[in-house]
């Protein structure tokens, strides 16, 4: 069993550790849990095969590529369920929440040879939005890989610009150079606004190539 608590960049390392130190799990049984060991080679192969399906899903379904990955049989999201997306969602996201709680966007891969920017209006989520970069294999590769509505600096007109590989002077810049030669990013909407949840407002389609390197 794993307990994961996600904190945004407004917490210091000391504050995060203090929260971690207060966590505990109370077992309801003293019986030793035993299970058959996982075949790591088989696990890695299946995980990689499932993750490799994501670009084709995004190309086919566009901004709704992740719809149907995280559904509940007891609410309206069940109509979006597909076995394909359920399996891929488990591989790329280790499960997920319902659309009324969290909505995810995935960009597909971009070359690290250019500079990109994403300028958008604040979605107005009740929780927050965040944008995180990954390499081709789905791993983070830098110390600063994320901006959110709690950490990003606004433009003068109230919009936000997140830059990818545009240099330290660019607004809310995230470095993209990594050994795989490509990057992708995921947008997360926590407690999404009606504009996001019902009207389909999405940020990924707004990204633009600014210049080559």
Automatic annotation (TrEMBL):
Residues 109-193 form the DUF1214 domain. It holds the Pfam family DUF1214. This is DUF1214 domain-containing protein.
């Amino acid at each position: 069993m794993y307990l994961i608590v996600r904190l945004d960049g407004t917490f210091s390392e000391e504050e995060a550790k203090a929260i971690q130190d207060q966590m505990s799990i109370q077992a309801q049984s003293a019986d030793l849990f035993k299970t058959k060991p996982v075949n790591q080679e088989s696990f890695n192969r299946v995980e990689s095969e499932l993750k490799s399906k994501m670009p084709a899903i995004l190309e086919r379904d566009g901004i709704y590529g992740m719809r149907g990955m995280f559904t509940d049989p007891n609410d309206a999201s069940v109509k979006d369920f597909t076995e394909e997306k359920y399996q891929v969602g488990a591989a790329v996201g280790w499960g997920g929440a319902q659309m009324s709680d969290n909505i995810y966007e995935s960009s597909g891969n971009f070359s690290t040879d250019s500079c990109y920017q994403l300028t958008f209006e604040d979605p107005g989520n009740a929780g927050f939005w965040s944008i995180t970069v990954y390499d081709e294999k789905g791993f983070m590769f830098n110390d600063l890989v994320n901006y959110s509505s709690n950490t990003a600096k606004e433009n003068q007109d109230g919009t936000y610009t997140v830059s990818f590989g545009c240099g330290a002077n660019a607004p809310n810049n995230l470095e993209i150079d990594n050994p795989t030669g490509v990057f992708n990013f995921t947008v997360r909407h926590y407690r999404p606004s009606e504009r996001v949840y019902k009207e389909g407002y999405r940020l990924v389609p707004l990204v633009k190539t600014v210049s080559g390197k």
